[in-house]
């Protein structure tokens, strides 16, 4: 039972809680209209201190599809923060108006800080390069739905594994499952940090800079973009961003039932021709993102699983 | 039946489809509350890559008055486009969350491009100086409601006829009707382009730079503003913008049942004193704009005419 | 009966109208869910020509909790005003789409001007340093609910009493009640203007720059922040802003049933340690702000008290 909880990190949920959340999400996936009145009379506040249209849309659509309503801002400029208000005061005031709050913030730790003052559930929708737990929930639900199960897979993660928040959260969450083999694929300058590797539990891993060489053994290929905003140096960014581009030729090396995931937005790292391959599931993944958020909002507001 | 179609240009609808849409719109005008639940459970995305409060409000009010819901952005700054995402990826993602999308974009062709990738209906709400089909639908519905019929009229169009997107779309759409006489009234620097004149079919036209001289013969006077953003040169803009100002004195020359239309916003081209004249229908026109959008959304989403 | 009225200044309501509004608000406070369908089918437009997240959220949540819907903008950049439209034209157009409008504007008098052209009720949500009547209604409802009654109180107002719009409106409204004693607490540079003092009627007042000295006699302490945007000189601002900081030590001097109010956002003028004191009611006050706005919207739209 998650009623009244905050969701700040992807590890805030136990395996049992995850399981229960996924079961609810799957019931929503199968008949979303059955849940179209569960949120009636409830308000979700979307507090975006940095813009992220995709994430905001996903949360807002989730709330609206539950029959609830939304208030919010999508730019720091419109917020009271410009008047020097603390994040604690902001969330306490928002708690007077709304039943739950989603927060995106450029500073690490801001949603955690807000949750300490909040009378309503706070969901972290990304804080700097740190955490974005509902992306992780989205990824896990996608694997579960499309591969039947999360355990016993070979999972490739490709791109910027050093700064990529999405990858770190996902690997941490996957590490709770059994018998996974991770294949970390990145340029040497952007390898996954050692502290992530230390948390893999009984799961195994390998590291490589050669995507083609490992393509054939993957059940799942998780692609990420190389984000300009993580670099101090434009030249460095330009050199690395084209390093791993997934195209139709590389897809020929992959298993027939492999799936290609991506947290989106995608820039150049997946060639448009791959979109037509049925193994490319990144747009389905976005839709699962809305469904898992519907489930999460229902659980946090205690809107009833049945 | 328009279900699932995209509306990118004002000529995307045949005369028969227009007729059916207008009939639905007129039923909405007469009893809007009868339609207040048709959109229940549906979401419209308003994607405004340049601000246009009026157009956005009109679409959002239309959807809300159907009982539907809205997600959206009103400024390019809040969009994922800032992260380098293609318009195709944006619309595919939006299609995961929403049931239809309205797009306003500074670049010509952007809504057309989006529609090619979209799983949901896309409505063009203005692309640069190019097309704005729901404005045209608004204008046609206004004429139909207030003049009984679209054929057999003398229609004056006044102002910037060279760059004025609204006028071009309207003239193209009107050209499908019979027995119209167009009077194009503009300074010599801003006359209507020849390719528009070539498409008038069996209808007739004249061109003049003298508003007063033609005032008495008009059934409809369609005024437009001279838009600063279409000029490279501030001096040129200032010289031309005051060229044709409609005032009470000029209105005395007009027929008693002439109507004055304007797409709004109006700047100086209609003196405020004209607002009190019952022939000034530009605010009624704005209201018809909401009703035609209600009808259009219903048709595109297949929400049932009856 | 307030149906169709505009609310531009806090003195726009008579004592009888206020009384009736508060009675409705109190019925809402006691059972908000009873009113969750009153606004069904209605649309509120929130026109924020300068950002004010808190005020906007309060109005939007009020309308949504009545079952109504909202359209709006939160930044001047998104508005048609950027195209040179007059405020009269804007409100006439908004009146085509919405049933009532809330306006926040940096220029004094803008909401009044808008109301002169408007076919729908206009509520002033702050115009420059001038008026913010729903803040005043919030403050009055808070006093009434938490102190039982508005008359027969000693009310301290502390901070920037010269430029503080909130204080001026509140004092004007309170002056209609009986047997109040005002204690104006400010640095000499920021004393309350004489024209406010002239309107106190039969009520009494004193002025001081010493908060501690008067603390013990207050029934209500209304704190305000010293706003950077009211100063031309950064140095002057920094010197004065720390002048009166309410902390736990000063709270020890106060009556046991005194209440501390604040319009929020708070910066430094109330130490965070005070938040834990049950006499600190500023977050409850924010919640009353939503309820009084629900009552006001119901009255202006004629949505029925019973």
Automatic annotation (TrEMBL), chains A, B, C:
In the UniProt record, does the keyword Cell wall biogenesis/degradation occur?
no
Cite the Gene3D superfamilies for this sequence: Aspartate/ornithine carbamoyltransferase
Q: Does the keyword Transferase apply?
A: yes
Q: Please give the PROSITE patterns that the UniProt record associates with this protein.
A: CARBAMOYLTRANSFERASE
Residue ranges constituting the Aspartate/ornithine carbamoyltransferase carbamoyl-P binding domain according to the UniProt record? 5-144
A GO molecular-function annotation: amino acid binding
* UniProt-annotated binding residues for carbamoyl phosphate: 54-55, 104, 132, 135, 264-265
Instruction: Quickly give the catalysed reaction.
Output: carbamoyl phosphate + L-aspartate = N-carbamoyl-L-aspartate + phosphate + H(+)
Name the keywords, alphabetized.
Answer: Pyrimidine biosynthesis, Transferase
Q: Which residues form the Aspartate/ornithine carbamoyltransferase Asp/Orn-binding domain?
A: 152-298
Which pathway does the UniProt entry assign to this protein?
Pyrimidine metabolism; UMP biosynthesis via de novo pathway; (S)-dihydroorotate from bicarbonate: step 2/3
| Binding positions for L-aspartate per the UniProt entry | 83, 165, 225
The biological process GO terms on file are: 'de novo' pyrimidine nucleobase biosynthetic process; 'de novo' UMP biosynthetic process; amino acid metabolic process
Pfam families the record matches: OTCace, OTCace_N
Q: What is its EC number?
A: 2.1.3.2
- General function of this protein: Catalyzes the condensation of carbamoyl phosphate and aspartate to form carbamoyl aspartate and inorganic phosphate, the committed step in the de novo pyrimidine nucleotide biosynthesis pathway.
Oligomeric state and interaction partners are given as: Heterododecamer (2C3:3R2) of six catalytic PyrB chains organized as two trimers (C3), and six regulatory PyrI chains organized as three dimers (R2).
Family, similarity comment: Belongs to the aspartate/ornithine carbamoyltransferase superfamily. ATCase family.
Query: Could you tell me what this protein is called?
Result: Aspartate carbamoyltransferase
